[in-house]
Amino acid sequence: MLKDFNHIQTAHCENGITTSLLKYHGIDYINEPLAFGIGSGLFYIHIPFMKFNNGPAISFRTMPGSIFKRTCKSLGIEVKRKKFKDHKTAMDYLDSKIAEGIPVGCQVGVFHLSYFPVEYRFHFNAHNLIVYGKNHENYLISDPIMEKVTTISFRDLEKARFARGPLAPKGHLYYPENIGKPDIELLKKGIKSGIKRNIRDMLNIPGHIAGVKGIKYTSKQVRKLREKLGQRKAGLYLGQIVRMQEEIGTGGGGFRFIYAAFLEQAADYLKEDKLTGISEDFTKSGDLWRSGAVEMAGIYKGRLGEQKDFDKIADILLEIHETEKQAFKKLSKLKLGK
Amino acid sequence: MKKENIPQDKSALDNFTRDVIYAKNEEGKYTTGLSIGWKIKKDALDNEWEEVNRRIEEAKKAVKEGKKSPIYYFMELRLMDISILSGYTGFWKLSVKRHLKPDVFEKLSDKKLKTYSNAFDISVDELKNFKG
Known about the structure:
The complex is a heterodimer of chains A (338) and B (132).
Chain A: H1 13-24, H2 32-38, E1 42-52, E2 55-61, H3 66-74, E3 78-82, H4 87-99, E4 104-108, E5 127-134, E6 138-142, E7 150-153, H5 154-161, E8 173-177, H6 184-203, H7 212-245, H8 254-270, H9 274-300, H10 307-333
Antiparallel strand pairs in A: 1-2, 3-8, 4-5, 4-8, 5-6, 6-7
Helix pairs in contact in A: 1-2, 1-3, 2-3, 2-8, 6-10, 7-9, 7-10, 8-9, 9-10
Chain B: E1 19-24, E2 30-35, H1 39-64, H2 70-77, H3 82-89, H4 93-99, H5 102-106, H6 110-120, H7 124-128
Antiparallel strand pairs in B: 1-2
Helix pairs in contact in B: 1-2
């Protein structure tokens, strides 16, 4: 076991890995909202013609792996990452890192995580956990969405690291290297570049399915849903949106609130009061996502089902689109400097 | 959202963990709280499981009536779809689709049946002899 590994619980797994690993290596100022914001984690994409668990493919955050990569890079920390073809090589490599005293982040498929309740074990391959040690039969696991540490058998971890299907992890593991002393100036710089990159991703990404425009696209789809799919399937479709929005460990319009918390901290670090006001806009957006989910639940619970109920959801999505668009526009007008 | 409004509805998280939620404290600053679940989420998950079970039952019936091969049933039972099963077996999606037909399934080699049974974590006999 590694000396003094502190488990940190977070709302989202990748934020948690980033926070825990950097803190372990002495970056004491890091916390979940900072990791998320510096890594430009806020996003929206609705991929048409692609299905995920027989429902719409929607994501509320950026590409898996990006938050860790960007946050480390911004803070001047190197990232070591490796994928494997061979299972044994992958497990041996993990063992050697633990033996060196390095806690390691691993991408895993949730379906094989034996410590998860069966209700959550779908084929979702972009979950992340930290392996921080090993005893005679189990690996010691810090799963950021859990309150406490846990363990997993050799066989189950191997299966989880080699889950197949979309976003297959292929044994993917990663850890930070050459970590310098915590540097507040670098942190401030990271906050600014994180905000700028997030503005670009949400406002200026081409096409109509990603960024704030993606929310408008979903709104359009929802308006047509009843006619296109009928009540039962429309309910499943909306249920899937809620499940993606409220992914395990990101309860309650989660990512929007985390971003609002990030901007609140950014306002302090950068001494820029306007950021506090913009933080409020993201709180509003998070609240709207929650109200949207309540309306969607009305449909998948069978309480609601008329066209006007679908229209109401579509209208809420439009309001979210407008709120986030204006918030990012305000951010883009701030003179944050380099 | 305010901290006192963090939902506390019993859910599948019971005996597993609680969720971290970001919400505002009395001074209007962000803080975190723990939630045992939110009914809206629970309903979405329950609804999804109802659908999963419906699909499994339908698959069972289709095998019984000779419309689909046992691979179809176990694919649904393991919450897979064609693309996931293709990932686990290494067979092309089109081949997997063909293997869902009972007459094609009858002629599958032992080696291919073994690959499927590994993907489903069952024995070859269980796969071969499933009658719905």
